[in-house]
What we know:
The chain has four helices and eight strands. By secondary structure, the protein is of the alpha+beta class. It has a single domain (23-150), classed as Molybdopterin cofactor biosynthesis C (MoaC) domain (Alpha-Beta Plaits, 2-Layer Sandwich). It starts with 22 loop residues before the first strand and ends with a strand.
Amino acid sequence: MTFSHLDERGMPNMVDVGGKQISLRTAVARSIVSLPAEVLEQLTNGDIQTKKGSVFQTAIIAGIMAAKKTGELIPLCHPLGLDNCNINIHLSEEQEVVIDCTATITAKTGVEMEALVGSSIAALTVYDMCKALSHDIVIKETKLMEKTGGKRDFKRA
């Protein structure tokens, strides 16, 4: 197995997608944020209102904006024009904020990184907007949940 972003000499290399087939590609990434009780107490009607505004609505916008800029943030990612990007935020049974970012494109390359960046930046935005209430906020994890299209599909159990 070799790394796709290294050439035969071991140097960084953008993957050549010129010969790949155009197909519908979708990726879903998830970030989980643990909020302390003093922040969770501020949750009303499915969101937290701060002096900066609505936490979850702002996080959704930030995540979508970030997903669209992934090619500018990650050095060897292709710049992509997404067909769609959707961010869903909800509170789990464990009282954790679950952020799912779904990115889609019809192209020669996938959108895993766009989904991962979208969910990550949405999580960081939740932290930023709630840090005045507590610094005991933990972004627990960010992971790819599934992807379709391209060489092989993936779905986390």
